[in-house]
Amino acid sequence: MRILVETLTPSALEDAAAWVLDHMQPSATQRNGLQDVLWRNDGLVIEERTRREVAAAVPIEDFLHDQDRFEALLDRWWVLGGDDVFGDFFGGPPSVRKQIQQHVFQNPGDWSWEMLLDRLGAFETVDKRFVGFLEQVVSHAALPTEENQERVVSLVNPVLMKASLELREVDRSGGYPVYRLASTLTPSSRPKTVIFASSSKPDLRVSDAVAGEIEIVDAHDALVYDAPIGIDGLRFDALRRWWGAKTPGIDVEVAPRPLYDRLAASIPESSPPQSYLFWIYHKLYWDRIGSVPALLPEVWMHWDPKTIRERGARALLGQRMDFLILGPNNQRIVLEVDGSSHYTDEAGQPSPARYARNTQYDREMQLRNYTVYRFGGYELPDRERPMLMFADFFDRMFTRHHITIDP
């Protein structure tokens, strides 16, 4: 069996681990080993020093409100072992569970929170396990009141912020806050309305100037996504279900192709490289498209009731994004395709002014916590170009932004 496992590719090994977790009932040791295979390159990175400082910031007493609840939480994430009846009889070493019962519950004060996490292996485990445990240990499942939750978060966040991380309230469940670990470099607010797939300017007005709310009077040919966007971002399947429900004559369970065609049709005919990037993205992931982030074309970023002639071209810089991906934890990822008009003037000559305008756009977007990736039109000439470069880019981009898709 070991020889067989060693012959598997990393992808096949991950598939096998996922199958065992879904179809069998592995022991805690087997479960964690399989999860480690699946989680080794997944999730936010949180270094050992930060983990130890987080542990040192909270008194262990803050978690000891209910022994059964606390032990059940530990069981979900760590290997505690049994009660060691035979180990005790024959003088063997006690299990971690037995040590916790002795040093945490029977003799309070023996162990600090840092000592307990050290014994669990929390400082060396894969990032996703530590992050998931941290998110659950501040949940209502572990802490009985909202005041308890807020206290622990208030102790942990100053440490996390030194590593550009924070426990951020993202939802409410049963009346209690739900916290998720997020980078402080990503937006804290969720997108409210996304206007996209449009070749013409929508008609908007301010419906509540005090609250800063807008009303869409006429979207013309645009799509307006107004459904809630969860912590995992906007996936193609969610977009497909929304579109099916909003579009007369389209079944809610519509296949992905009609939505793909609708989005592709919104890309300007004058930009073949942009169409090619859209095509190649879906070509690479079509067999698992439902779990892939939706690639939204022609997304309105800035809107002004006046025309370019009235306001000036520079004031309307970057009205629309070529493509937008809404990733986990409110991440906004922009893909821009630069044809020759982005760096030449009307006569086709190199234009430092136009190049400067693009760099200004990138700076402004970065300051708004958007991540911008630019492609030169030269990279996207036709459908004969090998896709290896683009497959590598998207896979690395997903990894960097902690985007997981079906294997």
TrEMBL record:
Pfam families: AbiJ_NTD3. Residues 46-210 form the AbiJ-NTD3 domain. InterPro entries: AbiJ-NTD3. This is AbiJ-NTD3 domain-containing protein.
